[in-house]
Amino acid sequence: MREGGRICAICGICLPEPHYPGERRCEACGGSHRVYMSFFLRRGWFCQFLEADLKTPLPKKLNFRSPDKIILLAEHGAAFSNLETRQAMDHAIAAGRGGVWLELTEEQYRKLKAR
Fold this sequence. Notes:
By secondary structure, this protein is an alpha+beta fold. The protein folds into two domains: 1-31, no CATH class; 33-113, no CATH class. The chain is built from three helices and four strands. It has helices at residues 67-76, 83-95, 106-113, and strands spanning 33-41, 45-50, 57-64, 97-104. A hairpin with a 6-residue loop joins strand 2 and strand 3 (57-64). The longest helix is centred in the last third of the chain and has 13 residues, at 83-95. The chain starts with 32 loop residues before the first strand and ends with a helix.
C-alpha cells in the first residue's frame, strides 16, 4: 500500500485520493506537490510545468542546452522511483520530447509558482 501511494511512507496513515503509484508523504510528514514536467527539444531543451490536474500551467518555464540538466531536475523532483521510469526518461530524451511526474517539496513548488 505504501508503494501504491495509498499510505504515508513515513507514518503509515491513509492518504487522500487520487492515489498515484510510488511512495508519498502526508502533509504532517512533509507532504509534497505533484507536478508534471514536460520537455521538448527546440533550439535547446524547453521545460514547462503543469499542476496535477494537467490543465493548470505553472508560470516558471526553463530552457537548457543539455538534457543532463533535465535529468538532474527530475532527480531533484524524485521522478525516478524505479528503473522503468529512468529508462522511459532516457527514451523520451532520445525522441526529443516527453514528460515526467515530479514530487516537489513546498520550497521547490513555491519557486515554480514564482514568476
